[in-house]
Design a protein that fits this description.
about 425 residues; alpha/beta; 7-stranded mixed β-sheet; 4-stranded mixed β-sheet; about 35% helix; globular; biotin biosynthesis; PyrdxlP-dep_Trfase; S-adenosyl-L-methionine; transferase; aminotransferase
Length: about 425
């Protein structure tokens, strides 16, 4: 019998290579994995003792860094009571408190909360809410969605169908996915009034297809994995008005943008609007455990529950997990106890100042920053293996994709660490020349 607990680094790396499928990876030509054995603050510690400053917040979730005493304490306290209990017919303080807090923090129209176990599931729940709402109130024609080009909403089937068919990484499944509608991604820059050209196509699509459209789904202000694009809050305001005019629901996917990342607690606040349905996740637990939530208005909840089924037809096994909910409450406490807006402004200033050094490089198409997000868009795709090796050699952890070298650092990062992170990003990009 293999002694799993005392395996050498070489042994468990080999097991990983032989058996484990990593995100978007090949089992025939597996990429070399970086062996992380611990993490604290903003640093990841490798098996050989080398430390890397984390520029990714573990895919945007670890906003308070790693091994935070407050989150550790919340986890330990909850473990002493129970780590999990089914949510069917049972409730518990952590979930009840989290639901109330999310309602208090999000736009006033959002009053009902469905707590699930991942961002993709939160999107599935949002889509199902929209579809079941229309079915329940007697309109069975509204079965399609309208999404944006360059959008990304997750890897499960309902979510995949709303991702950009080209840049959303899911074109292999086109023939089996529901056929939804797509409008061009907004081009109006953040802070500017939405142009006529930006609104014309989506207006036409809503006018022509509103009879079959259940909802429009968008990532507000920041389109994430589909291109790391920032766009106008005015576009969102005008889209809200269009959805009202044509009686189509509006879904905001705030999984990447929620909890302060863009400089507002939720990105919809840049437009001073409320969606009918909102998805949150990623930073919800500060990166400790997978947890997500889908919020909706009274209108949606009452429409669904007055319908044929009388209930919302969804219920994951780990829904409302007490351990994750307890940590989520502690993470929200931690965020709100600090002057988080000033902190995000601090990060924004440093990102803009330091990453600007990449603008003159011949390989760089654009540098853009918003809140705690910094993006260097290249003219050509990066060679992932070579640039990641350079990042590690420089003592930082980055995970670019396509033409995009971007950072979403933990909010607790110090000025010195952030300056160093940015300078090493620019240096590594310069070596691509």
């Amino acid at each position: 019998m293999t002694d799993y607990h005392n395996a050498s680094t070489e042994q468990w790396l080999q097991w990983d290579k032989d058996h484990i499928w990593h995100p978007y990876s090949s089992m025939l030509k597996p990429a070399k994995m970086v062996p992380v054995v611990s993490a604290k603050g903003v640093r990841l510690t490798l098996a050989d003792g080398k430390e890397l400053i984390d520029g990714m917040s573990s895919w945007w979730s670890a906003i308070h860094g790693y091994n935070h005493p407050s989150l550790n304490a919340a986890a330990n306290a909850q473990l002493s009571d129970m780590s999990h209990v089914m949510f069917g017919g049972i409730t518990h303080p952590a979930a009840a408190a989290l639901g109330k807090r999310l309602v208090d923090l999000t736009p006033a129209e959002l009053t009902k909360v469905f707590i699930s176990d991942s961002g993709s599931v939160a999107v599935e729940v949002a889509i199902k809410m929209a579809l079941q709402y229309w079915y329940s109130i007697g309109n069975q024609n509204k079965t399609r969605l309208l999404a944006l080009r360059n959008g990304y909403h997750g890897d499960t089937f309902g979510a995949m169908a709303t991702c950009d068919p080209v840049t959303g990484m899911h074109h292999l499944f086109t023939k089996v996915l529901p056929a939804h509608l797509f409008a061009d991604a907004p081009r109006t820059a953040f802070g500017e009034s939405a142009s006529y050209d930006d609104m014309a196509q989506i207006t036409d699509l809503l006018e022509q297809h509103h009879g079959e459209l259940a909802a429009v789904i968008v990532e507000p202000i920041v389109q994430g994995a589909g291109g790391m694009r920032f766009y106008s809050g005015d576009y969102l305001r005008k889209l809200r008005a269009l959805c009202d005019k044509f009686d189509v629901l509006l879904i905001h996917d705030e999984i990447a943008t929620g909890f302060g990342r863009t400089g507002k607690l939720f990105a919809c606040e840049h437009a001073n609007i409320s969606p009918d349905i909102m998805c949150v996740g990623k930073a919800l637990t500060g990166g400790y455990l997978s947890l997500a939530a889908t919020l909706c208005s009274d209108r949606i909840a009452e429409g669904i529950c007055n319908g044929e089924a009388g209930v919302f037809m969804h219920g994951p096994t780990f829904m409302g997990n007490p351990l994750a909910c307890s940590i989520a409450n502690a993470s929200i406490d931690l965020l709100l106890a600090d002057d988080w807006q000033s902190n995000i402004q601090r990060i924004d200033r440093i990102l803009k100042k330091e990453l600007a050094a990449a603008s003159p490089l011949k390989s760089v198409a654009e540098v853009r920053c918003l809140g705690a997000i910094g993006v260097i868009e290249l003219k050509d795709n990066v060679d992932m293996a070579s640039i990641q090796a350079r990042f590690i050699a420089k003592g930082i952890w980055m995970r670019p994709f396509g033409k995009l070298v971007y950072t979403m650092p933990p909010y607790i990062i110090s000025d010195d660490d952030l300056v160093y992170l940015c300078q090493q990003i620019v240096a590594a990009v310069a070596e691509e020349e």
